[in-house]
Write a structure and sequence with these properties.
The chain is mainly α. The chain has two domains: 2-182 and 288-317, 3-Layer(aba) Sandwich (Rossmann fold), CATH 3.40.50.620; 201-281, Tyrosyl-Transfer RNA Synthetase (Orthogonal Bundle). 56% of the residues lie in helices and 8% in strands. The chain contains 13 helices and five strands. It has a three-stranded parallel beta sheet. Strands 4-5 form a two-stranded parallel ribbon. α4 (84-93) crosses α7 (119-134), α4 runs parallel beside α13 (288-317) and α9 runs antiparallel to α12. The chain binds adenosine-5'-diphosphate (ADP) and tryptophan.
């Protein structure tokens, strides 16, 4: 089974990204032939600053490798190192009804926000279809917001196969609903856009300070507290063993413990949890050659598959 996913290089990762997207993406390497790429071509639709683009790509590469992505098992590459994707996107463009693209939620959301649409924004799903079809992926794990784009991919593959003969595998989206939403400092979904995040590789002192600012109710130290409705406890659960969770829950219910104590314990656990990854990241950051080699090797692996698919598609339409 071939599994493929892509991630946009967009800013510093937080623990919501880690539990909701990175860890599941890294686990794919257990389940089949995995392809994971940094969607820099896609990021051009929103990032218009060369230095920010380079830094974003470098950060995502370091973050994933530090958090356990095994480049021997997952082909990890930069989208732009696979130029075959563009040729395929063009072939797909000619079986893409304009109305299909105009119906896409993410496109319509951007229009609604007043963003003046360019061709890149409209064609975004065609490029995404090319990413997926070029490796003949069977399964595409994505967040709910990307489900429609995978459905567009299926539509285009079916249309192309009907028009030109069987060429592409029809992929299935796999939506990560099982992953609970990680709450932010204020209890809403943790998100860059709400400014309520805890970064995974942030400055340790600043991270502790942010944890101490998690919003709680105003119960006094003596009062018994309810772990099930507390943001601190919800975050604590992500890092703690069953025994640690039971122990802290009992102390909540008994009273006599303030939220400050729970926050401090959360900060300690979080620091310990990410410490080995932080060390690995520092080691990798000192060795940019290694990271570049990994991406190049991943691209070579993906390109071998991509060339084969592209040749098949070129033959199907009569370019060869
Ligand atoms: P943000 O909301 O911070 O801008 P993105 O929308 O870039 O984050 O999300 C990138 C990935 O991380 C997506 O796959 C998304 O599902 C996941 N993710 C983001 N925030 C959370 C969260 N609070 N809990 C679980 N998963 C999350
Ligand atoms: N559009 C995806 C996102 O913003 C990233 C992406 C690009 C992708 N190409 C892909 C995801 C192909 C899965 C498969 O999250």
């Amino acid at each position: 089974m071939r599994i493929l996913s892509g991630i946009q290089p967009s800013g510093k990762l937080h623990i919501g990204n880690y539990f909701g997207m990175m860890r599941p993406a890294i686990e794919l390497q257990q389940r089949g032939e995995a392809f994971l790429f940094i969607a820099d071509y896609h990021a051009l639709t929103t990032v218009a600053d060369a230095a920010a683009m380079r830094e974003g790509v470098r950060d995502v590469a370091l973050d994933f490798l530090a958090c356990g992505l095994d480049p021997e098992r997952t082909a990890f590459y930069r989208q732009s190192d696979l130029p075959e994707v563009h040729e395929l996107a063009w072939l797909l463009s000619n079986v893409t009804p304009l109305a299909l693209l105009e119906r896409c939620h993410s496109y319509k959301d951007k229009l609604a926000k007043g963003i003046a649409p360019n061709h890149g924004l409209l064609a975004y799903p065609v490029l995404m279809a090319a990413d997926i079809l070029i490796v003949q992926a069977n399964v595409v794990p994505v967040g709910r917001d990307q489900k429609q784009h995978v459905e567009v991919t299926r539509d285009l593959a079916i249309k192309f196969n009907l028009a030109f003969g069987d060429t592409f595998t029809i992929p299935e989206p796999q939506i990560a609903d099982a992953v609970a939403v990680v709450p932010g400092l204020d209890g809403q979904k943790m998100s860059k856009s709400y400014g309520n995040t805890i970064e995974i590789f942030g400055d340790p002192k600043a991270t502790r300070k942010r944890i101490m600012s998690i919003v709680t109710d105003s119960k006094t130290l003596e009062e018994p507290k309810d772990p099930d409705t507390c943001n601190v406890f919800r975050l604590y659960k992500l890092f703690a063993t069953e025994a640690q969770q039971a122990d802290l829950a009992a102390r909540y219910r008994a009273g006599g413990m303030g939220y400050g104590t729970a926050k401090k314990e959360l900060a300690d656990l979080l620091e310990t949890f990410f410490a080995p990854m932080r060390a690995k990241r520092a080691e990798l950051a000192a060795n940019p050659r290694y990271v570049e080699d990994v991406l190049q090797a991943g691209a070579a692996k993906a390109r071998a598959v991509a060339r084969e698919t592209l040749q098949r598609a070129r033959r199907a339409v009569g370019l060869e």
